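Let's practice the habit of predicting before peeking. Look at the sequence and jot down your guess about where helices and strands might fall. Then scroll down.
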Amino acid sequence: MPNEHKPIFTVKARRKAPDSPMRVEPVDSPPPPALVPETSTELVPVSSETAAKLEREHLVKETSKVKFGLGVGLALSVTAVGSFLLFRLLNRMKVEGLENLPDSHENILFCPNHSSLLDNFAIGAATYIPRAFLHPEFMPINLADRKNFFGDPKSRRFKDKVLRILGEYFFKNMRTFPVDRGQGGMDQVEQWKELLKNNIVIVFPEGTRSRSGEIGRGRAGVGKLIYDSRPTVVPCRLIGTDEVLGVGSLIPNVFRTVRIIIGKPIDVSGLATLELPEDEKERLDMYRAISDYVVEQIRALTPGQSLPSDKARREAAAAKAKAEAEAETATKSNA
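Done guessing? Here is the structure:
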């Protein structure tokens, strides 16, 4: 017989242990909870426009709230002291028409002309700053250009960085609401309406500061705000704030005169009879006509007491000096 190859090693079959009452058979059990993969909520990407809209809605709610905490108290105190120094001590301020201020703080729209970055502070100093310490609900909301008060969010310049800090910790506490002028005013009117419901709001019908000293035309956005909200519209005339801090100036001037004239509330009840045109261009024209009417009421406010402005006095003094110099030159030539 041929030689059979024997395996080098053999594997013995494992003997099955006999059944025993102490033997426990393994049971298929689910993994512990920590090992069970949980169904995670899928994150939906949000566009930049949606994020900006949500941020502005949150800002509207925060600005509309009447708060009086440490930040608001400090900001209001700094504004009160600064306004006193600038408008009462270093310059003169004359206010007329305080009896025309409404007793309510709901749905009140102040419409002044605009020629200086100090216009908001001048209105506050002349009307509600002393009262706001005890009644913070009378602190007005200021609609202000974002780049001038909160800085350009896309800029890395030192000026914009400082303005972003001031906007976050000072101007927000002073109830300043940023307005993006580059995007137009019509798409922001809905936010202004929410702010106006239970508050006093200051808005400039011209939309921007005057470079010539003349009061410009009204903007359609302000007209739409008035048409939709039907607020109590209070026209205000500011005279001389551009001489304290004009366009392009960084350091305020001193020994100037600022006049603030508060007019009687404008009757806007007639707007209820106006039908809103279906054509978009006609609607914009109607909104501009409403805003222009308010601007005309602002132009009609004139000081009750004759008081020449500092610019007029300087021009008169220069003309007098020129006339005296010409007379002296003529006298010498005749001699």
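How did you do? Residues 39 and 227 are 50 Å apart (CA to CA).
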